[in-house]
UniProtKB/TrEMBL annotation:
This is Cupin-like domain-containing protein. PROSITE patterns: JMJC. Residues 115-272 form the JmjC domain. It comes from Massilia agri.
């Protein structure tokens, strides 16, 4: 039997205007019980799914959204096909009101297709929603998105930004893992993914101990919580999270932001470049490059370039937007030779 996940640390009594650095810069997950319970969207959802549906339609102006549709046989689990050559669902571009009609059509039925609208920018799709449903993120440049669907399962994955996920209709169960558990989660392809992020290949409803024996170790480090409408979860950058929607109509609003300047590139590009240039070197050469990365990247501090005159440090000096632009131009020139 797999170990049970530990409960996520819970904080109650906060309002959407009480989020300071101790919350929004935490390096551990935090369950913020009732954080957005005062939102009009949550009030509508607590009355009924139909009222939540009606509330969303107030802001809708006809935009299309990216949706994923799966047959009832996938049991809500959006994933690969059997040999990982494709996926078990169909991506479609569709009007949001059509999706809401389909969710209403199947509500309460035992057999349902899997319906999921993911990562849709709220200000584009539902202009005005944020005017009534407000959260104070302390001036952070956050992207607000909405996620809508029925009983779906999203495989464990990580996101680069910090994440405040607010359940505003239905219920969701989150299972989180620290970044150090990557080797025990059996991650699939990095460059061919269901929705942009690499995912765990483990079926959390039926984990295969022979194929994925180290998953038990991951579960020994897992944290989990079930959220109702009005609850929020802070997910730190790079924490793996598996999400299961538990009702026929579920809506989540989330906010992503980075603790780094916007001109910084995504580290995923560095990982891909390292796979192309470093991974297949002879062992001793990989060790040499590991030492260079340790010195210049992972353990860099004020002493790393202290022996170089400040005016001559160039790429080893603190970076700004102009410096990053020059580095990017040099990299593109080298890669296009």
């Amino acid at each position: 039997m797999l170990p049970a996940a530990e409960p996520i640390r819970e904080i109650a009594g906060l309002t959407p205007r009480d989020l300071g650095p101790e919350i929004l810069e935490s390096t551990e997950p935090l369950l913020l019980r009732g954080l957005v319970g005062s939102w009009p969207m949550v009030a509508a959802a607590r009355r009924s799914g139909a009222e939540a549906d009606t509330y969303l339609r107030r802001f809708y102006r006809g935009a299309t959204v990216a949706a994923m549709l799966g047959a009832p046989e996938i049991a809500g689990r959006f994933f690969y096909n059997e040999d990982l050559s494709g996926f078990n669902f169909a991506p479609v571009q569709v009007r949001l009101d059509k999706v809401l009609l389909e969710l209403e059509r199947y509500r309460g039925k035992e057999v349902q297709p899997a319906i999921y609208v993911g990562s849709t920018t709220i200000d584009t799709c539902l202009p005005g929603f944020h005017d009534e449903n407000v959260v104070d993120l302390g001036g952070r440049d956050a992207l607000g998105s909405i996620w809508i669907g029925n009983r779906t399962r999203i495989a464990a994955h990580y996101d680069l930004p910090d994440n405040l996920a607010c359940v505003v209709a239905g219920r969701r169960r989150f299972t989180l893992f620290p970044p150090q558990q990557v080797g025990n989660l059996y991650i699939g392809p990095l460059d061919f993914t269901p929705a942009g992020q690499a995912i765990s290949l483990v079926d959390f409803h039926a984990p295969d101990p022979e194929r994925f024996p180290r998953f038990a170790t991951a579960m020994a480090h897992a944290q989990a919580a079930e959220l109702e409408a009005g609850d929020a979860l802070f997910i730190p950058s790079m924490w793996w999270h598996h999400i299961e929607a538990l009702e026929d109509f579920n809506v989540l609003v989330n906010y992503w932001w980075r603790q780094s300047p916007g001109y910084m590139d995504t580290p995923t590009n560095a990982l891909m470049h390292a796979l192309m240039t470093v991974r297949d070197l002879p062992l001793e050469q990989r060790k040499a490059w590991q030492e260079l990365f340790r010195h210049y990247v992972f353990e860099a501090d004020e002493n790393t370039a202290a022996h170089i005159p400040p005016t001559a440090r160039r790429i080893l000096a603190p970076l700004d937007e102009d410096a990053v632009r020059n580095i990017r131009a040099q990299l593109l020139k080298r890669m296009n030779r």
